[in-house]
Structure formats: structure tokens, C-alpha cells
Amino acid sequence: MEKVSLHRRPFFILFVSTLLTVALTVFLLGRVADPQLPRLVSTLVLLLAIPALISLIAFTIRFAISSTAGPRTTLLAALRLIILLAWLAAHIEFVSPGEETIALRSVLILLDLALITLIPFLALTSQFILPVGSIQERLDAFLRLLGHALGERGPVSFVRDGAVIEAIGERTRRGSGVILIDYASAAVFRTDTAFTRAAGPGIVFTEPGEWLAEAVDLRRQEVNIQGSTPATGKDTSPESLNSMAVTQDGIPVSADLSITFMIDPGHLLEPREGRTADAPPYEVNLDAIERAVYGHAFGEYEDVSWKDMALLLFIDLWREEMKQWTLNALIEADKIQIPPLKRIASAIFARLALSSETAPAAQEGEGPDAPRELEILISRGIRVLDLKVTDLQLPPEIQNERNLQWRESWAGEVQEALREATERLRKNRNLGEAEVNDLLFHELTSTLRDQLETGKHPSLTETVALVLTDAVNLYGQSELLPESSGMLHELDQIASRLTGRD
Asked: Does 496 reside within a domain?
């Protein structure tokens, strides 16, 4: 626990201040040559000091008899009251002084001057330590500072972004205090027995016995819960804070859940959230703020904050929706249709979000068009803005089985495609060979067919020579490899010899 430094403790500050005051008084008394002050100055000091003393006495009595003051605080207030009464009684001798009261008169005049100077300076200082604007706020700031000087320690805190920044033990103080709230926050106050009020951004002066119950963040809140790999045969209790659910066919599943919400701004339009330059960044709906703090629900071990209510309802509806889906429907959905997780998220959002159709029935309480979950959120002053369901996770054994089925299906499709490709290759090869044979027969017998068509009847030797000559011409029309040039030369010689033979 953080420790308070010595120089910040009230008793140390009081001790040092008293020591300096006594030293200054002794020093001034030693420097006074003629203690007999003019009668006019004495009377003026008396007229100013006595009302101030009476006011301080009344202020101390009110604090001492307050029911919120503890025994130690009451004892200190009573001690200060005795000192102030003794100081006031000493002024009786001040009215008709004698020779023996000259030293007392000097001390009283110095103390009265210090008192007369202290109160205006407190009033002046109080205007700058807080962002006060109205006359009432300036008066409240002065009274709080004066009470702090007299020992009335009330709570002094700062609320920023929904979090309370305060010193140790600040909420245990029961005097009049002050709370400063930024534009992104609000606060709810209470006494020891009941809630009192809600307040928005600005400066709030608390009454004796009133203290800060809870700070509220006006910004949008996003709560996430990560899915985990479910295990079959294990407990998936709905009471545990996780996204485990069971499908219609009894398969445990999990997913990542995310929900965005904020304090209800009090209208159906888009929340302002700093979009308007001449207005505060967030709407302050005091009724919704009160309902968010007042309506705490209680769980198994602790109360449920308003920040957790939306997520708990989201998890409950997620499990309820999953009971209407089978595993195959979740995984083997048509790609043309909306994905199942988006359809589930839309169905849940319709039961949690406020719309123009459900708003009247939900705000009136009971109604056929108002879902039960929406009525709970409205009763807590919460408005859901968005939610998401992503990354569906299955048990390892089911995931492995589906992977095996996918691999088998994939392998069968690949083998079938490979067989079809091989058959097409064989058919194309046979077709190519037939076309090449027809082309070779046509090219190698072109000269022979020309002679036959003219009525000539070449002999067998001439026929072979004509075929070889067409072969040599066919080789000559195509690009030859280096090793094929020798074969072309030999074919040419054979054709020449056959042509010269009988």
C-alpha cells in the first residue's frame, strides 16, 4: 500500500504552522516599543475579529456534532472549539484593559490581525484552486477550503476516463468534499445507507457524509473473450465465463466473441462521441448512469458490474443459438449464402440492440416485441452498439476426422483427374500418330500418284526410287539435326542408283 509522505500529513503541517506562528509572535512582541496601541486601531481589530471568531466557532460546532465525524475527529474538533472559546473570552479583558493585560492585548491583536488576514486570503485562494464559475460554486469552494483548514477532511478526488484518482483513505473521509469529473466520465454518490445522486462532467461538491460510490466511463466499451479448443467428454458448464457451447447434435464448439456497448445516451440516434464541435463529446444521461450503478446484479461470488452484464447476456444467447445448429450446417454452408457465424451474430444483435421497433415496448417494461435480454440491458442503462462472432473452433478429434475426410476426398478427386488426363494423353498420342502416318503416306507417294494419274505405270524399282526421292525432298523441307545430314546423303545416293538401274 502506498505510504503518505511526512510533509503531506496534516499533523505535521499543523505542527510546523504553529511553531512558525509562535516564533513570529515572540519576535514581534520583542520588537514592540510601545504596546499601548491607539484606541481606534484596537476597536477596529476587535470589531473585525469577534465576528470571524464567532463564525469559526459555529462552523466547528456544526462539524463536531455531525453524525459523520468519527470519535477522533470529534475530539479534535472539540479541542479546537475550546481554543476558539478561550480566544473569544480573552476579548472581554480586551474591552476594558488594565495595566496587567497589556501583554495579553498585544498577543490578541497579533492573533486577530492574523485571523483577519487569513480569511480573506482563503477566500481569494479558493477561487483559483478549482475551476469554479458561478457564485454558489465560489462560495462552496471557500467553505471547503476553510473546513479543510479547521480539520474537516472531506473526500477530494479526480475522475478521469472512468477511473478514480485519489489519495489513500480518501473515501473514508466523511466531511464536505469536492470531486472533479472530466468530460469522458460520470459519477454516482452515496451515503453509508443509500445512494444519493448521479453527476456528470464538471465539479461536484459533496455534502457531509456523502462520498463517491462508483465512477462511470461514458466512452464506448469493448469486451472480448477468446475461444479455446473444446474437449469432448469434459464439462462445459454454462456458468463458467467462456464461449463454450454445444451444437444440436451434441458437439462442443467455441468461438471468439466481441461486444461493443456504452452508457445509453438517451436517444436512438448515433452517439455523439465528439462529432459536434460546440457540444461536450459525450451525452450525459443521468437516469441511465443511475440505473447502471444502482442495479447491480449478484453472481455466485460477487456482484456483476454493468460492464460485465452485456458480455454475460451475449454468452448466454450464443449458447442458446448454437443449440439450433448442427455441425454440418455450421461448416458445410453454401458459399453463396451468408456465413453461419454472421447469421448467428445478427440474430443475437437483434435481441440485444435497441431499435425503433423494440424501443417503445422495451422502455415500457413488458411487451411482446421487447426481448427479455434487451429489457435487462435497458434496466441497467446499457446500449449495445456492435458484436462479432469469429474463429469457430472444434474438438481436436473431430477436427482431425474432418481433415482426414477432406484429404481422402481430395485424393480421390486428384486420382480421378489423373486417370482422365492419362486417358486423354493416350488418345491424343494415338490420334497424332495416325495423323503423322497419313501425312507421311501422302507426302512420300505424291510423285508416284502423280505419274499414275497421268497413265504411267512405273516398275518396282522406279516406284522405290520415287518414294526415296520424295523422302529426300521431305527431309529437305524441314530443319535437320546435325546427325541427320548423313542419312539424307545416303538416301539421295540410293535414289540415284535405283533410277539408273533397269
From this structure: yes
Question: Backbone dihedral region of 55: left (phi > 0), alpha (psi from -120 to 50 degrees) or beta?
Answer: alpha
Q: Which residue has the cell 460546440?
A: 278
Question: Is the pTM value of this prediction over 0.85?
Answer: no
3-state SS assignment for residue 108 = helix
| Integer Cα distance of 158 and 81 in angstroms | 32
486: which 3 cell numbers?
548423313
Give the C-alpha distances (Å, rounded to integers) separating 310 from 244, 257, 307: 17, 12, 7
Beta-carbon contacts of 399 under 8 Å, excluding residues fewer than 6 positions away, are none
In a domain, 418, yes or no: no
Q: Are 336 and 324 in contact (CB under 8 A)?
A: no
Q: What is the largest CA-CA distance in the chain?
A: 179
Vertex 157 angle, CA 155 and 159, to 5°: 145
Co-location of 244 and 349 in the same domain: yes
- On whether residue 177 sits in a domain, the answer given is yes
Count up the domains in the chain and report the number. Answer: 4
Residue 486's domain spans which residues? Answer: 445-502
Q: What is the mean pLDDT of each run of 10 residues along the chain (502 residues)?
A: 60 70 63 50 61 70 60 66 71 58 66 75 84 88 80 84 87 84 92 89 89 91 86 53 85 91 89 84 91 75 80 92 86 72 91 70 55 89 92 80 62 69 78 68 66 69 69 61 54 59 50
DSSP 355: -
Name which of 349, 367, 348, 345 is nearest 358 in CA terms.
Answer: 367
- Secondary structure (3-state) at 242: coil
